[in-house]
Amino acid sequence: MHEPQDRLDEDRPGEDRLGEGRPDDDLILSVEDLAVHFPMGGGWLGRDRRLLRAVDGVDLKLKRGECLGLVGESGSGKSTVALSILGLLAPTRGRVVVDGQVVTNRPSGDRKALARIVQMVFQDPYASLNPRQTVRRTLEDPLRVHGVTATSEIGDRVATMLRHVGLRPEQAGRYPHEFSGGQRQRIGIARALILNPKIVICDEPVSALDVSIRAQIINLLLELKDTLGLSYIMISHDLGVVEHMSDKVAVMYLGRIVENGDWREIFERPAHPYTQALIAAIPDPLHHAPLATTGGDLPNPLNPPNGCAFSPRCRYAEAVCRGEPGPVLETRADGHAVRCWRADEIAVQATLAATGGG
Amino acid sequence: MKLRANLIIGGALFALAILVGLLAPWLAHTDPVLDANLMNAEEPPSWTWWFGTDDQGRDIYSRVVYGARVSLTVGIVSQLINSVIGVALGLSAGYWGGWWDDVVNGLTNLMLAIPSLIFALAIMAVLGPGLTSLLIALGLTNWSFTCRIARASALSLRSQGYVQAATVLGYGDLRIMITQLLPNMLGPIIVIGTLGMGSAVLSEAALSFLGLGVRPPFPSWGSMLSDARDQITTAPWLSVFPGLAIFLTVLGLNLLGDGLRDILDPQSRSRRS
Amino acid sequence: MTGVPLIEVEDLRIDLDDGSRRVAAAEGISFRIDRGETFGLVGESGCGKSITALALIGLLRQPLSIGSGVIRFEGREIQHLSAAKQRELRGNRIAMIFQEPMTALNPVSPVGRQIAEMFVLHKGKSWREANQLAVEALASVRVPAPERRVKDYPHQLSGGMRQRVMIAIALACGPDLLIADEPTTALDVTVQAEIIELMRNLCAERGTAILMISHDLGLVANVCRRVAVMYAGRIVEERGSADVFRSPSHPYTQGLVASLPRLGSRAALGRTRLKEIAGVVPAITAFPDGCRFNPRCAQATGICRTVAPVADLLEAGGLVRCHHHA
Question: Is residue C109 part of a domain?
Fold first, then answer.
């Protein structure tokens, strides 16, 4: 058992690049200062109008061939980030650069071009397939929409893709209800990959599946990433799955990234109290130890707390955490970034506790 | 089991009506318009004249058989127009939302507020009587229910994963509406359409009864009823047979609609299981 | 604790009437829960865990019904009780909380009233008294500002708060058994931790036994002392919960434990390919003959395809239903 080698740092020749000679050549996606605010109506003449800052200043980088895990609870803004990358939401501020092209603030007609680069695997394999279309139709239509007209080529690509996801080409004539949940998710993956995208956003791809099926789909996604040279954004609340699949992990809380770094750093040395709380909240099956509780619910995103958004629930919070301005995301030399005033102190405390206790 | 009976009886009645209309030239004993003979005027039903004859000696049976053509044409075509308008407006309003949704909603509410027969009457008054005007008048006034259903379905379907997936795949709006949304809302639309055909047959009868329908002497069930008005006591067969034809056709369509609803509407199906 | 168990299920079979025939959605279900004990039923969708719970509480509805078997509550058979007697048992002695509190709560009634109703219905309190008790009940599930919250409607509360209200209602009459059916599946992890701890602490304080039902083996093993793993309508393994993870006996349980990416395993062992359980979960109407896991089992032999294994006692304690168990 060895650590999979980072195959991605080596450059891949032969791929056409739009932004030639850019310094970040291995960067397939970058999200820069992304903000999505929704005005929430209320009262006559908008008197009580407030802003829902679903995403507020998010920076993300995804390298070719890597998997970026996006972690956070409901309302943290991960789905909004995904929709913005897919070009389905117009950001209030910031930009998304996909494969060297700025995709934000472009006419909606360009969605079609973007569709060939970024695709998505959905959570619920029961709702995400059109019940009135055969698998063949589900996979052929996207090709036709994108200008593939030769019948033989369409047939070949559908058959190849079905084999890629572990289905038999003979099954193409069937309707979704004739398949099990795991097979449906394979079809959903085939649909996402049929246009040969470079980035696939996986939105909770296994959480709606039976537990005994999940490993099949996780293995399949990892295999396809390698064989087809894909890059993933993996959105999940299951930290076990995220740790298993991701190269980099970003933790979101209330529309902002609170911690960001290499998967090993995040899971072995979580620096933000929220990340620590998330990890500690996972039940340990071998012990009856009480689960670590954080106290309180997620704050109302329409009325976020002053200072650090996590401060009302944070056991390390002090006066500085509750006052403005809030902490900024500080990147350390090793690339590990944390948005917490007291991250260093907390780390020292943890080391002291560990050595003192041992 | 009762559900199946709905479907079978309703379907059989409707199919019979259509068959009668299609085969009218072969089924009819005489020409419904030309074969007038005052010698045979107002004969009661007999072996020769199955449904009797009218005051001009025309065979009522043949006229009822030919009348099926007008009644069913009006019923089917006008409801098709209604369905197309209703689906186009409702589907686009539900999918796009925004100001277009507001416009369609306002229009639908307006249509629901005005009794459709009165509205149809007004249109007929402008266009004048005749089959084409009848089709237009009835086709433009009864789409609001279809529109509501289509809009509600589109609203709930547009958040389905496969619709999102189609968006992500770069499908155009029109393609999404036609390939992703429409096939999945067809069930309730067909049910409403079937029931609407029944009411269109009735409306045709009502408008023809008021003299605004198909111009005499060509027969329609409604105009036959209208003509028979004065002789209802002296020659009741003049009104009974066209009335029965309307009754059976509308009953058939309603049973068919109910039966289809039981099959196509998953909610009522799961309630029964 | 020895003597009469709180609840005892013996060879329970639950029938599903699919219109033309009856199939067993669950069969041969036997387990016991002692007073104050925590017991978990784990399995995938369709394995029969939820309907087993509904049978205990007398809430099976057409097309499901109890085909055979015995359910004893404090030694008394309850499976054939009249609807009125079952109602009395329900809420008063056995309570249940569900996955989605929004559908279990009445949307048009303030939550305080829904809690108070339990005291009026089961304890014969006056509404005035009951309302006071409702505030206390909300306080006991750590809802902040309970005097104000009693007037809130379910939709005004967050998912975690709604589940707290459900727990308050369930525990209002001091039941002896709390059935929790996927109580935290719809919730975020940090909220899940809160709810689980609340449930665990309140039940421990009051001596209430917990029957927890979930697809999440890790969570159940953490909360419960003993765990029964269900597959395709049968209990395949029943063990002390730590044993299930450390030394699973049934190939299905082994597969489940090995197939889940566990936090920390990649750091310790590197990214290895997850062990897959081949095949698909069978539908209720198409359970295979013999051992129901045999089409997916790497160790299956001829006997597995024809003869249903019986539950064997394990030396280390617990039961396993497999011809080839270790």
Answer: no
Provide, rounded to the nearest whole percent, the portion of chain B with pLDDT above 70: 91
Judge: C44–A292 Cβ closer than 8 Å, yes or no. Answer: no
Out of B165, B169, B184, closest to residue A132 by CB: B184
**Residue C59's CATH number:** 3.40.50.300
As a residue count, chain A comes to 358
Beta strands at A67-71 and C312-313: parallel, antiparallel or unpaired: unpaired
Give the confidence band of B232 by pLDDT, cuts at 50, 70, 90.
confident
DSSP structural state of residue A238: -
Chain A residues inside the 8 Å CB shell of B162 = 127-130
Two tokens, residue A101: 């092209």
Containing structural domain, residue C14: 7-82+217-320
What are the backbone dihedrals phi and psi of residue B203, each rounded to the nearest 5 degrees, phi first? -65, -40
CB atoms A114 and B170 under 8 Å: yes
Question: What CA–CA distance (Å, rounded) separates C269 from C137?
Answer: 47
| Pick among A2, A184, A209, A212 to test the C interface (most C CBs inside 10 A) | A212
C190/A293 Cβ within 8 A: yes
- What percent of chain A shows pLDDT beyond 90? 56
Name every chain A residue with its beta carbon within 8 A of the beta carbon of C189.
Answer: 73, 237, 239, 278, 281-282
Does residue C241 sit within a domain? yes
What pTM was estimated for this model as a whole? 0.86
For the record, the structure tokens of B189 come out as: 């639309």
Nearest CB neighbour to A115, from listed B164, B169, B175: B169
List the structure tokens of A324: 């403005």
Residue for token pair 């009459």:
C173
Give the residue from chain A lying closest to C256, CA to CA.
Answer: A212
Which domains occur in chain B, in start order? Answer: 2-272 (1.10.3720.10)
Helix (H, G, I), strand (E, B), or coil: what is residue B28? Answer: coil
Q: Is residue C138 part of a domain?
A: no
* Residue C59 domain-assigned (yes or no): yes
Q: How far apart are CA C227 and CA C94, in angstroms?
A: 20
Q: How many domains does chain C have?
A: 1
Q: Is the CB of A294 less than 8 angstroms away from the CB of C223?
A: no
Determine if the peptide bond prior to C101 is cis (ω within 30°). Answer: no
C70: closest CA of chain A, how far (Å): 30
Mean pLDDT of chain C: 90
Query: What are the Cα distances from residue B196, in Å, to A239, B76, B118?
Result: 54, 9, 17
Q: In whole angstroms, give the CA distance from residue B110 to residue C113.
A: 42
Q: Do A145 and B169 touch (CB under 8 A)?
A: yes
